[in-house]
Amino acid sequence: MMIEINGMAHVILTVSRFEVARVFYRELLPRFGMKPVFDGDHLFYCVGGRTAIGIQPCDPALGGERFVQRRVGLHHLCLRARSREDVDRCASVLNERDDRSWARGR
What is residue 23's three-state secondary structure? Predict the structure, then answer.
């Protein structure tokens, strides 16, 4: 028996600097048409485009660790855009940010 999936329900990203990440995703995800549905001390969660993305703080004991793409776990998250123009608009939004720490991985 085959079970067909209907898209991805959600993904939760665990982050070391929750407050910094929340500022970043509060600005970015609504520009993707995603609506914030929960914004608390330990979870920021947006829904849209038939999926949801959330961020949560990591265990404080692991706060000094950094993301390593080839480690066990998440490799990356890729969202599909409807057009090249949408990709270019996303790049413009990111390039306009004053806080460029997201680009340095810090």
Answer: helix
Query: How large is the greatest C-alpha to C-alpha distance in the chain, in angstroms?
Result: 52
The residue type at 81: A
| Cβ 55 vs Cβ 15: under 8 Å | yes
Q: Please list the rounded mean pLDDT of every run of 10 residues in the chain (106 residues).
A: 86 94 93 95 94 95 90 87 90 78 50
d(C-alpha 77, C-alpha 91), whole Å: 16
DSSP secondary structure of 27-86: HHHHHTTPEEEEE-SS-EEEEETTEEEEEEEPPGGGTT----TTSSS-----PPPSSHHH
* Both tokens assigned to 71: 């480690």
pTM more than 0.85: no
